[in-house]
Amino acid sequence: MKRLTAWFSEGRSTGKHTLPFVVILLSVTILASAANLLLPADSVFYVSTYTITLLGKYLCYAMLALAVDIIWGYCGILSLGHGAFFALGGYAMGMYLMRQIGDRGVYGNPLLPDFMVFLDWKELPWFWLGMDQFWFAMLMAVLVPGLLAFVFGWLAFRSRVTGVYLSIMTQALTYALLLAFFRNEMGFGGNNGLTDFKEILGFSLQADSTRVALFLITAILLAVVFVVSQKILSSRLGKVVLAIRDSESRSRFIGYRTDRYKVWLFVYSAVIAGIAGALYVPQVGIINPGEFSPINSIEMVIWVAVGGRGTLIGAVIGALLVNYAKTRFTAIMPDAWLFALGAMFVLVTLYLPKGLMGLYGQLKAKRNSVMNKESQA
Amino acid sequence: MSTLDSTRELFRRDQVWPFLAPAQAEVNVGNQMILYVEDLNLSFDGFKALNNLNLYINDGELRCLIGANGAGKTTLMDVITGKTQCDSGTVFFGQNHNLLNKDEAEIAQLGIGRKFQKPTVFEEQTVFDNLELSLKTDKRVLPTLFSRLTPTQIDRIDEVLKTIGLAKHRFMLAGALSHGQKQWLEIGMLLVAEPRLLLIDEPVAGMTAQETERTAELLTSLAGERTVIVVEHDMEFVRSIARTVTVLHQGSVLAEGTMDQIQSNKDVIEVYLGEEAAAGEQA
């Protein structure tokens, strides 16, 4: 414990973006929350509950993008299956919320969720036991994605599977889970997933105050994850991770067990994705197998690519911007969104290999060189 | 050994079971030998890259390996460092470490450093970080996460930076260095790790005459304290540093001795300096 506190207190200047990011994130969320709860609905500055929920959703996506960036931008492992970890975290939260419905379901069964009554099941499957406890469900929300990532990573990285083969395997992983969760016999609600949630920890999910609280918690956790990740990546472990990205065999020859580093980083990333999923479900009110679809996982990669991989702030900005664009775009021209997304990916790959953060860096370098010339003249 | 015998072996009271015995970190260099390579064979699709190769390196020696392309110099280094598995044979580091059942990272942690033909440094990181990563420390995941540079380690890095002449460039990205400087940085990464045995593949390729001279000085100063094996094509350079030279040909040792002995060896003249040279001598 002492070592942990010492580790956090040393070296305050870890990444120049951290402090401004945390300050902006928290102040915006607090202002928006206050505007929702304190102002009357006809005020100019009133923020609707719909907007609050939307923002909360964006922040979950930002956390997910962070997870993808840690593994892709810093360690060079392109995971096209991070949606799997996100959805597993989401399902853990969904199961807890299902158990909270109790006898208020359509069939009024105090123990079984509606879909089980519908399938004529007599008792709760073993993996639903304990899910009525919030702490247990939250433990599962990080443990299940973490364990899956550990097993997958252990097998893949030890046999030195890299590059495009690994990406295809992660894609297959999420697709397999998609198919599995579609089955009614799996006991996760099949096609329809889990929905019709009533309350969380005794607070109604429809109440404005609950929504605002969820939004605030998401923002705080995003800030915490951001700071911890920044800290990890600026330690010597972060340097080893970059070294593995740039030349894995060289890192082995100076004595690092690169497979172990990759496994643990993958697990860390999966746990973050699981947390993001668990925060996402109570805000959107549904979790279904669609979250496992490969398209979702690819979209996450695009968020990171647009924002700028290899910078945590870039991943967050990318996720927020692309999802905002998606919200606007699907409202105007729903059919064209996928084309726009594809075009965006192509453009970013061609012209902004380092994403928007890279553009910012280029502009700054240009301005500096112009200023240098002027000062010389 | 029969089952009975092996069971008896298990219950011998004067011995500790192998899996309970502490892993011996120290390299046993009794007999003054640090590396034993015996009967090494390796073939790629029928091509014999290594053919019954035997090589013994004394502790503290500076040994040069020469040989034409495809003679097996780099393959030998690959086998020693765990990059390639050999078909048969033994490789021992000291008397107690069998290198053939260890992976690259373990071998590196035992104290065998390697410099590649093509300089490979971590281009996106600073010169200082490159050296920090190579320090001789605990390289497991958790200790690395919580590790901090001690003043001794910083001094050590500074010292190496001075030795390799990159003190001014310590915060420069390694990718921005010139080719020769990258070679030096890679040598620095070896030095900072304090290895027992250094395997150096073509250290002076792409260096200016002046840089070559400095490299020669550095390598000769290392010998004695550390054991150095150098693979090099530049005969002038080999002459300037080598005390003992081993000539490889088609995967096995052709000749071994001082530079003068080697240069007057008939076999060597024939296969290494080319047939014309041999023909010229006869004429």
TrEMBL record, chain A:
Its main location: membrane. GO terms for molecular function: branched-chain amino acid transmembrane transporter activity. This is Amino acid/amide ABC transporter membrane protein 2 (HAAT family). Signal peptide: none annotated. Keywords: Cell membrane, Membrane, Transmembrane, Transmembrane helix. It is a multi-pass membrane protein. It comes from the Bacteria. It holds the Pfam family BPD_transp_2. It comes from Marinomonas foliarum. The keyword Phosphoprotein does not apply. PANTHER family: HIGH-AFFINITY BRANCHED-CHAIN AMINO ACID TRANSPORT SYSTEM PERMEASE, SLR1201 PROTEIN. InterPro entries: ABC_transp_permease, ABC_transptr_urea_perm_UrtC, LivM-like. The chain crosses the membrane at residues 21-39, 45-64, 71-93, 134-157, 164-182, 212-229, 261-281, 301-324, 336-353. GO terms for cellular component: plasma membrane. It is found in: Cell inner membrane.
TrEMBL record, chain B:
The keyword Plastid does not apply. PROSITE patterns: ABC_TRANSPORTER_2. The gene is urtD. InterPro entries: ABC_AA/LPS_Transport, ABC_transporter-like_ATP-bd, ABC_transptr_urea_ATP-bd_UrtD, BCA_ABC_TP_C, P-loop_NTPase. Keywords: ATP-binding, Nucleotide-binding, Transport. Transmembrane segments: none annotated. NCBIfam families: urea_trans_UrtD (TIGR03411). This is Urea ABC transporter ATP-binding protein UrtD. CDD domains: ABC_Mj1267_LivG_branched (cd03219). PANTHER family: CONSERVED COMPONENT OF ABC TRANSPORTER FOR NATURAL AMINO ACIDS-RELATED (PTHR45772), HIGH-AFFINITY BRANCHED-CHAIN AMINO ACID TRANSPORT ATP-BINDING PROTEIN (PTHR45772:SF8). GO terms for cellular component: plasma membrane. Pfam families: ABC_tran, BCA_ABC_TP_C. Residues 35-275 form the ABC transporter domain. One of its GO terms (molecular function) is ATP binding. Gene3D superfamilies: P-loop containing nucleotide triphosphate hydrolases (3.40.50.300). It comes from Marinomonas foliarum. It comes from the Bacteria.
